[in-house]
Amino acid sequence: MPSSAQPIQDKSPGRAAFSFILAMVFFDFLSVGIISPIFPDLVRHFEGGDFARGTKMLGYFLLAWATMQFIFSPILGAWSYRFGRRPVILISCFGLSVDYILMALAPSLGWLFVGRVISGITTSNVATAFAYVTDTTTPDRRAKAFGLISAAFGLGFVIGPVVGGVLGNHSLRAPFWAAACLSLINALYGFFVLPESLAPKKRAKSAWHMANPLGSLRLFRSHPELTGLAVVITLYYLAHQSLMSIWANYAEYRYTWNNRDVGISLGVVGISAALVSGTLVGPYVKKFGERFSLASGLLYGTIGFLCFGLATRGWIVLATIPFIALWGIAAPAIQTLMARHVDQSSQGKLQGGINSLRALTGMAGPLLYTQVFAAAISPTARIHFPGAPYVLAALLLAGSLLLAVRVTRGSAAPVPAPAANAPAD
After folding, report:
1. CB of 25 closer than 8 Å to CB of 155
2. Which of 134, 138, 142, 205 is the least buried, fewest Cβ under 10 Å from its Cβ?
3. 196 three-state secondary structure
4. What digits encode the pLDDT tens for the residues 84-136?
5. In degrees, to the nearest 5, what angle opens at C-alpha 251 toward C-alphas 255 and 150?
6. Are 18 and 85 in contact (CB under 8 A)?
7. Quick one: DSSP state of residue 2?
């Protein structure tokens, strides 16, 4: 057997193995980003170019993808505990490359739908990637490793739409071929450099108990404020789904942007959000506290989406992007507030519950916004209002803001750090 197939015996992974994990996450979401600006166009192409019908059908595609993610993320995680990390990661990478080829050659809407379902399954390997890093890093190095993976995740989403938009201007199928090549190269690279990280003696004989995606939601009933905050973060994630669900169709329909314009605009949103997350969130929350940060972040998002929905010119939308970026202040603030109501041993379960809420909104959101947009631009609509989905997202955030102010009313303000010579408590 080649050495790359042997389990890692210590907690220090080879540089090549960890580089592959970073590359896998990056290429997975680079590929998702590459097809995001042009996928709605391809669906609409099979629907005869009709925006309303194409958008309505797109909602079902997005629902299928998100449903596969929701179901198979915990299943692949369970399989990785039963059979090892390496086979799950490599099979998903090879499967993703074959799937993009299938979608590049799809002769009909039905074949494209099958490809989208497979894509949802094969991109459900991020949890296994995090498990691999947990296996192969010591606790003092783990936070840095997780940070690098999160950065690779975000970088793929920033670069992907720009690349996909440029390629899509030449051919609707070209981004799929590019995504297939990247995924195949990544899978071949991993085959030669990725060792197994979970020794056979540490594997679970049965891991199906880990495959329940809803099990951790029960935690939210343990405290009234935690329940309210769970509703707030659900509305937050539901509003967020409007960005990727209909942005391409909305911008092309209302502002006559081409694929390149759509891709670049998504890239600008990603870069702006990364700048806020990387430079502003920490100082902002430290200065103003979690409660104010949550409320102000939700207010920024409400303003941003309202401007998206009412903007009559493309430049107004671009000028509004900073509000959408500042909206990102709310997410870490609300997670910190939620963590206060959970003991240390249940913090992992809390994150699992939050991920389940994100996944559920990932299923409901695309279907909601595509159907609203299709109805708003339909020839039979009483009021022609393309911005309706983003006004709806603004209303959802306004509701979450009001609820957040109410449920955190008793939350303590940030406590100043004690002086250096102050006695310990």
Report:
1. no
2. 205
3. strand
4. 888 888 888 888 888 899 989 999 999 999 988 888 888 777 777 777 877 77
5. 145
6. no
7. -
